[in-house]
Model the fold of this input.
Amino acid sequence: MKLFRLQTFENSSILLKFHVFFVLMTIIPVGVLMYLYAQLEDSGGIDLTVDQLNITLIIVILGVAAGYVAMRLMLKNLIDVTNASMARLGQVLGPEKIQSYLKGSENEIEVLTRTFGEVTHRLEENVQTLELTKKTLQSVLTRVGHGISSLSSLDTFLDLIVETTTEAMFGRKGILLLLDEDKKTLRVKAVCGISPRAFAKNGFSAETGLFAPVLLNRSALILSKTHYHADTVEGEEGLDFPMMCAPLFLGENVQGVLVISGRKEGSNFRNEEMDLLTNLAGQTAVAIENSSLSKNQDRAYFETLAALAMAVEAKDPYARGHLERVADLSARVAQALEVDHQLAGYLRDAARLHDLGKIGVADEILAKPSSLTDQELLMMKRHPEIGEGIIRPIPSLQPLCEIVRHHHEMLDGSGYPDGLRAEQISLAVRILCAVNIYDDLVIDRPHRRAMSRAEAVAELRSMDAKLDQRVVEVLAGLV
Done:
C-alpha cells in the first residue's frame, strides 16, 4: 500500500488562529464596553461626544467584522484540511467506503475519526499479509525443493508446482497451460482441483481465447467473469472467477500461462500474491527450458548410439535394415496390444539399440559365413550385456537397459544372459524377442535360406514354450 502524510491541525496553525480570532471577537468589544463603564463610574454619567461614540461603534463593528472574516477563513481552512484528508483516505479506502461513512455521520470530523481507524486496520492487515506472503513463498520453495529430488519427469514437477502454488494461494483450482509448437494454441499440461476433461479439446486460442490478454501484455492479470469466452466449459467442473494468471516467459520466449482459479476464502487476490505468482511462473519457465535442453541433449546421445548400432549392423551384409524393421514392427505390435504409450516408446528405442553390444564382438565372428563354434557362440551371447553397459551411464536411456539386456530371454529359461523364466520377463521384452526372431527368420543366412512369412509364423508358433503366443498371434496378424 502506498504511504502518505495527513495534514494535521497543529501543522495548519488552526489552534493559534483560533486564539487570535477569539481576542478580536471578544476582548476588543469587551474592552470598549469596560471603557464606557469606567467613564460612567468616574463622572456619574457618560460624557462622550458624538464623534467618540461613532469611533467606539466603528471599532466594535470592525472588531466583530474582522473576527467574522477571520473565523470564516479558519473554518474554510479546517474544511479544506478535512476534504484533503478525506480525498487521500478515499484513495486508500475507496469512494464507496467514504460515502457509506458520510451517510451515517453529520460532519467530516467524525468521518475522519472513523477512517483513521480503518487505515490503521488496513496497515495491520498489510503487515500480516506481508508476513503471510513470506511464509507462503518459503512453503512453496520448501515443498518444491523437497519433492524435486524424487521427481521422475518434467510432468511430475509441473504437477507439483501447480498443486503447491494453488494451495499456497488459497485457490480453488490451478491450471498450467503450455503453448503448442505453432504458438497459436494453449493446451492444459497440469491441473489441481479440476479434471483436464473440463476443458475444450481444442485448447484455448493464444490470440483470441480467454488467456490471450495475459500473453499479449506479458504480465500478470486478474480475469473476471467479463472475460469469459465460449472456448471454456461451463458447469461445476469449469473455471472459477476471479482468476489470477501469470505468463511463463524466459527472455522473449513465451511458453504458457499459470492460473489460480477462484478463492477458498472468497476474497480478492492481492498485489503481493500476483508478484509471487509471477516469480513462480518465471521459475517454472526456466525449469521447462532446462528440460527441453536436456531432452535435446539426451536425444543427441541416443541418435549417436543408434548410428553406432547401424554401423555395427553394416558389418553383417545379411542383416542390413534389421534394426529399423524390428523397431517398426515392435512398435506396431505394442500398439495392437495397447501397451502404455511411454513404454511403447521405450520399446521402439530399445529395438533400435538392441544389437549395439555387438560392437564388442570380433568382426570375424559377426561376418562368419558358417555356423559358430561353441566358444564363438559364448562370445556372441555377451552382446546383450555389452549393449546394456554402453547405455546405462546415460540417465535418459536407463529405461531401455532392461529391454536391451533381456531381448534373448525365453519363457522356459533357456535364454541368455540371465536365464529368466515366465513372469520374470516383461511384456516389452517378450515383444522384442518374438519380433527379433521373426525378422531373423525371413532374411537369408549363409547356412540357410530365408523363410516365407507363413513359414516364419509357423516356426514362432512351434516355440510355444519359449515365446509368448499372445504376442506371436498379434505379430502374425500384422505381417
Summary: Residues 130 and 272 are 8 Å apart (CA to CA).
